[in-house]
Design goal:
alpha+beta, five-stranded mixed β-sheet, 5 strands, globular
Length: 155
């Protein structure tokens, strides 16, 4: 049995420990925010945060995520308040088709933990999620706005 902590809740899994975490999230506990994109960890549509780091959930097994703190897009909102990155995404009207957005947001949350005041170069070098709609200029604006919102919350 594998024990997982997802969005603050404990889950036990008795199935195939090699199952990709993405499938466990989507099929076993109905958290469908993380999306299947490429299946090889390249596009980032499946990004979740594990112990604060952005991880592609299509290439990590359930077993490898055991005992870690896993956060999905469904776990970002706290007490009916959107996370600053979610607010910035809405304010900048980032989403076009929206398929990759949960992965983009989760990657940004982890990125801003290490880069609270990012430059465009920091974004270029660290955010590798793909957007087939090419909303990259709005994503960049939203990342900067997210950093502002997070700084405001800390002050």
């Amino acid at each position: 049995m594998v024990s997982l902590k997802i969005n603050g809740k404990n889950h036990d899994f008795n199935g195939d420990e090699e199952m990709p975490l993405l499938w466990y999230l989507r099929e076993e506990i109905n958290l469908s925010g993380a999306k299947f994109g490429c299946g090889i960890g390249s596009c980032g549509a499946c990004t979740v945060n594990i112990d604060g780091q952005a991880v592609r959930s299509c290439i990590i097994s359930v077993k490898d995520a055991e005992d870690a703190n896993i956060t999905t897009i469904e776990g970002l909102e706290k007490e009916n308040n959107l996370h600053p990155v979610q607010r910035a995404w809405i304010d900048e009207d980032v989403a076009q088709c929206g398929y990759c957005q949960s992965g983009q947001i989760m990657a940004t949350v982890a990125f801003l933990n290490d880069h609270p005041n990012p430059t465009d170069q920091d974004i270029n070098e660290n955010i590798s999620n793909l957007c087939r709609c090419a909303t990259y200029s709005r994503i960049r604006k939203a990342i900067h706005k997210s950093a502002e919102y997070m700084a405001e919350e800390k002050s």
